[in-house]
Specification:
By secondary structure, the protein is of the alpha/beta class. 29% of the residues lie in helices and 24% in strands. It has a single domain, classed as Maf protein, CATH 3.90.950.10. Helix 4 packs across helix 5.
């Protein structure tokens, strides 16, 4: 099976390849597949945005083979005390060009005075796939935690340094890559999607 993933995020693709570690799957980025696709992600949920990206890329490859699957995901950090923000705006929060170090510190600043369980938050992910016959699949995953008092850890990327995982006693950026992939929101969503693809004979 060949998967063309609708993203230009190299960190994300690296993580996806490790989560779906399977010699029978060839995972390509849009660039590797010779495609350029940047649709307006105007959905109101992670699932809607994942499907928007999938559909836009699928439209560029109408004659793909039966074993070629278009896939995408949308994910973000949802903080309960901030009404679920940054949520679907996670990548755009404070602007695409703003470093995550600045974004992370700003979110911590906004939670000043918020203590304990009131700092609850989670990473959420929706992973979508479109098969050659046009059928669509969607799976979701979550990774629960708390917003840390300070960023910590150099593993991972994005908001990983500020999501504290009580079961590990550290942030998502401090656990190993293997541990993170086993429990992560993206891992859960992609593994669920992989099972649905198997049921389709792929």
């Amino acid at each position: 099976m060949k998967i063309i993933f609708a993203t230009g995020n190299e960190n994300k693709v690296k993580e996806i390849r490790k989560i779906l570690d399977d010699p029978g799957i060839d995972i390509l980025t849009m660039k590797e597949a010779g495609c350029v696709c940047d649709p307006d992600e105007n959905g109101t949920t992670f699932g809607e945005n994942a499907l928007i990206k999938c559909r836009a890329l699928a439209a560029l490859l109408p004659d793909r083979s039966a074993d070629t699957v278009i896939m995408s995901d949308d994910s973000g950090l949802c903080i309960d005390a901030l009404g679920g923000e940054p949520g679907i705006h996670s990548a755009r929060f404070m602007g695409h060009e703003t470093s995550y170090d600045i974004k992370n510190r700003e979110l911590i600043r906004r939670l000043e005075g918020v203590e304990g369980g009131q700092r609850s938050a989670r990473f959420e992910c929706a992973a979508a796939a479109i098969l050659s016959d046009g059928s669509e699949l969607l799976c979701t995953g979550k990774m629960e935690g708390l917003i840390a008092m300070e960023p910590s850890g150099a593993n991972g990327f994005g908001y990983d340094p500020i999501l504290y995982l009580p079961q590990y006693g550290c942030t998502s950026a401090e656990i190993s890559e293997e541990e993170k992939n086993a429990i992560s929101h993206r891992g859960a969503a992609l593994r669920g999607l992989r099972e649905l693809l198997r049921e389709k004979g792929l």
